[in-house]
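hi! just following up on the protien thing from before. the input was this:
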Amino acid sequence: MGSLAAETPFIAAAAFEGRRRRRPRFLCLHGFRTSGQIMRTQVMGKWPNSVTSRLDLFFADAPFPAEGKSEVEGIFDPPFYEWFQFNKGYTEYRNFDECLAYIEELMIKHGPFDGLMGFSQGAFLSAALPGLQAKGFGLTRVPPVKNLVIIGGAKFQSPDLAEKAYGAKIKCPSLHFIGASLFSFTRHLHSFDLGDLDFLKPYGEALLDAFVDTTVVRHPKGHTVPRLDEKSLEAVLDYVDRIEKDLEETELSDSVEAVEV
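and the predicted 3d structure came back as:
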């Protein structure tokens, strides 16, 4: 008969296989002056079941009611929310610390989460949070952010905040969606209209430099949650495969430790 120490990994593996596999859970941060429900409609309505059925997506509302007109008014119903306020140059921010504290409370109450998914203003936050967390400027009471999905994101323009967020390379795997720019619009005039332009594209490209492990999906639409064509769907599914594998390995390791105890 083998020793208990030798049998422990097999006992843990058997117990793990007997459990229902947990879907990777993501906290989803919506765009400026929209809502969690709107982002749910954008993602669940555009991405196929082959993606969404494999993820556990929690769509939260931002903490502050919209202080002005929403760009989606007339398309989606209110209420509308914003994560923080900013000046015209996007270099000064109001209620930013309160926003970080609010997101941390969401993660404590509704987590644990395996990653963050953000669109537009929510993507700014999602991309910055791992770096801020690593330096102790936010999310100090929750585990490190492990995965990111950035849709129409960019870097914060404040030098002080940028240094805190991106001063060190961000190591967690990240999936970036970047839309068409004016350059691609002029090259493919026959297939675009002005609504297809992503005004954040140059800043989204610059954001990639802050990461070391990126998957990039470039799509022909503008500042939006895009539908997935065959090529982009393959990239997204590969990313989900990787997250699932990492999650399984982590949970199996935890099972081994629990059996040993």
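Confidence is low (pLDDT under 50) at residues 8-16, 183-195.
The CA atoms of residues 248 and 255 lie 10 Å apart.
cheers
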